[in-house]
């Protein structure tokens, strides 16, 4: 039995968690928080990065310069309707997003969110483990593998699960520290 597909699923769960963490702002500007924003570009929903130049001129500011000035209103609308909680400032040519300093309470809320997302990723890992163990049991019942092979595979699956759970814990700690750092 090949456990590669299950390990790939666990890897995807971890990378999905890391992608979600990039959208959590920690008081300083990170252009990745704009990754999920889509803008109406001539009737087609397009990612913000494909219709504008995004830069970080200061630690707590993102500057968005659309390729076409006619897009400014659409970009502003997309940012306002997103769950970023930022108000864009527009001078006719560029849009600026200023990140306010996070309060202690807001930081604690963000850490809770970080932990909740991490816990959801752990649940996904455990579900993958369950699926893998079920597949091993099926093969054992169908007499395709011996009892020893079943035990070895279950041990490998558990080690894989432990490895990815530790990775998730590291990601949670790292992001929590980043959020709590003033």
SS class:
alpha+beta
Overall mean confidence score, pLDDT:
87
Total strand segments: 6
Extract low-pLDDT stretches.
none
Number of helices: 4
Helix content: 55-70%
- The spatial strand order of the largest sheet comes to 3-4-6-5
- Note the main sheet: 4 strands, antiparallel
Distance between the termini: 49 Å
- Overall shape: it is elongated
The SSE order reads: HEEEEHEEHH
Radius of gyration using CA atoms only: 22 Å
Instruction: Give the strand content.
Output: 5-15%
What does this protein structure show overall?
The model has no long low-confidence stretch (mean pLDDT 87). A hairpin with a 2-residue loop joins strand 3 (52-58) and strand 4 (61-66). The termini are far apart. The protein contains four helices and six strands, in the order αββββαββαα. It is 55% helix and 15% strand. The protein has helices spanning 4-22, 72-81, 104-141, 147-180, and strands at 38-41, 44-47, 52-58, 61-66, 89-90, 95-98. It has 182 residues and is an alpha+beta fold. The protein has a four-stranded antiparallel beta sheet, covered by helices on one side. It is elongated.
